[in-house]
């Protein structure tokens, strides 16, 4: 598996382009905007992305969706079903505050434990509400990799003061659904640098 990262959105969202090395198939995680860098990164893989997967519905993670859809009409957008309301309302998802009102209907609505197979990769979806009602992580056990959006950061956690956020809910999500993962699991968050589950269990002051 190859993981490429670029910074998108006005506030620097980590957008990931992931490619299964056997099949060449790719997916995009959280396109905060459709920047020239992201466009070039997709082209360099030589493959149209199969999926855009949204860890949650805030504007800084979704404003590039329609640009990718325009260039790659076959791409499927996947999000947790609890984000339907947020994704459909530019005020709720705060994309209007960025000057780029974005309202999205996903092609695939996911639930806790759902899976998508992409080539040799099995993507498991872990519902981690708290930052938003439908926040979720993408876990690839065979690679010891977790894409966690704004659930967990290096030494921090996602904000809980947005509409639909809750610190107790986020804390429970992390303790019950992320801490049981292997300590060596590499964590790729929506902002800041990569970390591991083991490091955060021992050192994160918020949880």
Number of H/I helices: 5
Termini distance? 30 Å
- Poorly predicted parts: none
Indicate the overall shape.
globular
Compute the average pLDDT. 97
Q: What share of the residues lie within helices? A: 10-25%
What is the makeup of the main sheet? 6 strands, mixed
Radius of gyration based on Cα positions: 16 Å
Strand arrangement in the largest pleated sheet: 1-2-3-4-5-6
Number of strands: 14
Beta fraction of the residues? 25-35%
Structural class: alpha/beta
Question: How would you describe the overall organization of this protein?
Answer:
The chain is an alpha/beta fold and about 210 residues long. Helices cover about 20% and strands about 30% of the residues. It has helices at about 35-45, 65-70, 85, 165-180, 195-205, and strands at about 1-10, 15-20, 25-30, 50-55, 75-80, 110, 115-120, 120-125, 135-140, 145-150, 150-155, 155, 185-190, 195. Strands 1-2-3-4-5-6 form a 6-stranded mixed beta sheet, covered by helices on one side. A 6-stranded mixed beta sheet has the order 7-8-9-10-13-14. Helix 3 links the parallel strand 5 (about 75-80) and strand 6 (about 110). The longest helix has 12 residues, at about 165-180. It is globular.
């Amino acid at each position: 598996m190859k993981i490429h990262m670029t910074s998108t959105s006005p506030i620097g969202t980590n957008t990931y382009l992931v490619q299964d090395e056997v099949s060449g198939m790719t997916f995009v995680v959280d396109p905060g905007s459709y920047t020239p860098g992201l466009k070039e990164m997709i082209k360099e893989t030589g493959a149209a992305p199969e999926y855009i997967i949204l860890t949650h519905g805030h504007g800084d993670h979704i404003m590039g969706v329609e640009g990718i859809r325009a260039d790659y009409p076959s791409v499927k957008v996947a999000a947790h079903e609890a984000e339907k309301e947020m994704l459909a309302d530019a005020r709720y998802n705060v994309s209007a505050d960025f000057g780029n009102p974005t309202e999205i209907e996903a092609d695939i609505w996911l639930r806790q434990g759902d899976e998508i197979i992409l080539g040799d990769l099995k993507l498991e979806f872990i519902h981690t509400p708290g930052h938003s009602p439908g926040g979720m992580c993408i876990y690839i056990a065979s690679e010891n990799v977790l894409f966690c959006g704004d659930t967990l950061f290096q030494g921090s956690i996602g904000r809980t003061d947005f509409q639909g956020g809750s610190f107790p809910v986020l804390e429970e999500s992390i303790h019950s659904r992320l801490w049981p993962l292997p300590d060596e699991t590499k964590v790729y968050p929506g902002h800041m640098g990569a970390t591991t589950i083991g490091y955060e269990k021992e050192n994160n002051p918020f949880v």
